[in-house]
Specification:
With 430 residues, the protein is of the alpha+beta class. The protein is built from eleven helices and six strands. Strand 5 and strand 6 form a beta hairpin. Helix 5 packs antiparallel against helix 6 and helix 8 packs antiparallel against helix 9. This is TolC family protein.
C-alpha cells in the first residue's frame, strides 16, 4: 500500500498532517480532516440533506395508510320546528303548531369495498416510497465514493505539481551558481525561472482543484460549511477480480431499487384502478330519528327510520377510472424505460471498466518506472553539464504526462468499480 501510494504521489501519514497547500499559497481552510471512503459514506447516509428530505416520504406514505384505515363518522342532527317565536300564540282557532323537537343520527354504508381498496393503494404507496428511498441511498453512496476518488486524484495532482516545482527550484539554484562562475549563459537561467513560474502556477491550479473536490465531497456529506479541507486516506480502489457483463446485468435487473420501485408503482396504479371503480359504486345511508311534539291537546313522541340510496345515473366516477387506467399504462411504459436504461447503463459502465482496466494494465510493464528513470538520468546529466536545459524539460514533461495518465487511469478504474457496485445495488442499505 505504501509503495503504491508513493507511486501515486499521495502524502504519507506524516506528510498528510500538513495543510494541502503547504507547498504554496494557502487554499481554502487551513485545517485538514482525514477520513476514509467508508467513513465518508457513513456520514453521508446520516447527514446528507437530500437524503434526509427523501426519508420523510416513507412516514408520509404511512400516514396515508392511517387515513385509508379510518371509517366514516356518523352524523348527528338536532332540530326544532314550528316554534311560536313570532307571537302567533297557538290555539284552537288557528290550529297552528304543534312545536316539534327532534334528534337524528345517520350512518353511511360504503359499497364496493372502498375502504379495503383505499388500504391496498396506500400500503402499495409505502412500498414505493421505501424503494425510492433505497434508490436515493444507492445514488448517494455512488456519488460519495466517486467524490472521494476525486479528492484522492486531486491530492496526487498537487503532489506531482509540487515535485515539478521542487525540481525547477533546484535547477534555478544550480544555474545561479553557474552564471556566477561564468559557466552558463544567463538566458538558461531565465528559461529555468520561466519553467519554475509555470510549475508554480500549475501547483496553484492543482491546489484549487483539490479544494473544489473537497468542497464537493463536503456538500455530499451534508455539511453546511467547510471548516477543514478533507483528505481521503487509503489507496484508490483497485480490485483484481473480473466483472462479466452478463453477471452485472443480471444482478442489476434483480436488485436495483429504482426498477423495483417502478414495478411496484405499476401495481400501485393497478390498485388505484380497482379503487376508482369501487368509488363509482353506490353508498347507502341509514338514519334514525326521535321526534317530540308539543300540541294543544298534549304531547307525543315518535320514532322514524330513513334509508337513502343515491341514483348514480350520470356520475359513476368514469373520469377518475379512465385517469387511473391511463396512469397504469404510463407506469408500465416507465417501468420498461427504467429497465432499458439500466441495460444501457450496465453496458456503458462495463465499457468504462474495461477501458480503465486495460489502460491501467499498460503501466504494469514498468512505464512509470522508466519515465522516472529517464527524468532522474536527465537531471543527473544536467547537473554534470552533460545535458542541456531543453533535454531536462522534455524529460520532465514526459514524466508528467506518464504520471498524470497513470493517476487518471487509477481514478477511472476506482470509479468504474464503485459504479459497478452502484449499478448492481450491492452496497445499498436494505
Amino acid at each position: 500500500m505504501i509503495v503504491v501510494a508513493a507511486a501515486l504521489g499521495w502524502p504519507s501519514d506524516q506528510a498528510s498532517a500538513a495543510p494541502p497547500g503547504a507547498d504554496g499559497p494557502p487554499v481554502g481552510p487551513s485545517a485538514v480532516e482525514r477520513m476514509d471512503v467508508d467513513a465518508a459514506v457513513a456520514e453521508a447516509l446520516r447527514l446528507n440533506l437530500q437524503l434526509l428530505a427523501q426519508m420523510h416520504e416513507v412516514p408520509l406514505a404511512r400516514a396515508e395508510v392511517i387515513t385509508a384505515r379510518l371509517r366514516l363518522n356518523p352524523t348527528l342532527s338536532l332540530g326544532a320546528d314550528h316554534l311560536d317565536l313570532l307571537g302567533t300564540h297557538y290555539d284552537n282557532v288557528n290550529h297552528a303548531g304543534p312545536q316539534e323537537f327532534f334528534a337524528r343520527t345517520d350512518v353511511m354504508i360504503r359499497g364496493g369495498r372502498k375502504r379495503q381498496r383505499r388500504i391496498e393503494v396506500a400500503e402499495t404507496g409505502v412500498a414505493v416510497a421505501e424503494q425510492q428511498l433505497r434508490d436515493a441511498a444507492r445514488r448517494l453512496i455512488r456519488d460519495v465514493q466517486c467524490a472521494c476518488v476525486d479528492v484522492q486524484y486531486a491530492a496526487a495532482a498537487v503532489q506531482l505539481a509540487g515535485t515539478n516545482r521542487e525540481l525547477y527550484a533546484r535547477v534555478i539554484a544550480l544555474n545561479e551558481l553557474r552564471v556566477g562562475t561564468g559557466d552558463l549563459a544567463r538566458v538558461d537561467l531565465t528559461r529555468a525561472q520561466i519553467a519554475e513560474l509555470q510549475a508554480r502556477n500549475e501547483l496553484r491550479q492543482a491546489q484549487g482543484a483539490q479544494q473544489v473536490a473537497a468542497n464537493n465531497l463536503a456538500l455530499l456529506l451534508g455539511r453546511t460549511r467547510v471548516a477543514a479541507a478533507i483528505f481521503v486516506t487509503g489507496e484508490m480502489r483497485a480490485d483484481a477480480g473480473a466483472y462479466a457483463l452478463t453477471d452485472i446485468r443480471a444482478q442489476a435487473l434483480r436488485q436495483r431499487p429504482d426498477l423495483q420501485a417502478a414495478r411496484t408503482e405499476l401495481r400501485f396504479t393497478e390498485s388505484d384502478i380497482r379503487r376508482q371503480i369501487a368509488e363509482g359504486k353506490v353508498d347507502l345511508s341509514l338514519g334514525v330519528e326521535a321526534r317530540r311534539q308539543q300540541g294543544l291537546a298534549g304531547t307525543g313522541n315518535s320514532l322514524g327510520f330513513f334509508f337513502v340510496v343515491p341514483l348514480r345515473l350520470f356520475d359513476r366516477n368514469q373520469g377518475q377510472i379512465e385517469r387511473a387506467r391511463q396512469l397504469a399504462a404510463q407506469s408500465e411504459q416507465r417501468a420498461r424505460a427504467v429497465e432499458q436504461s439500466i441495460r444501457i447503463e450496465v453496458e456503458n459502465v462495463h465499457v468504462d471498466y474495461e477501458v480503465a482496466r486495460d489502460l491501467l494494465r499498460s503501466f504494469e510493464g514498468g512505464m512509470l518506472a522508466k519515465a522516472e528513470q529517464v527524468l532522474a538520468t536527465a537531471e543527473y546529466a544536467y547537473e554534470r553539464g552533460e545535458a542541456g536545459l531543453i533535454e531536462l524539460i522534455d524529460a520532465q514533461r514526459a514524466f508528467n504526462d506518464t504520471r498524470r495518465t497513470y493517476n487518471e487511469a487509477r481514478a477511472a478504474y476506482a470509479k468504474a468499480l464503485y459504479v459497478i457496485d452502484a449499478v448492481t445495488a450491492r452496497e445499498t442499505p436494505q
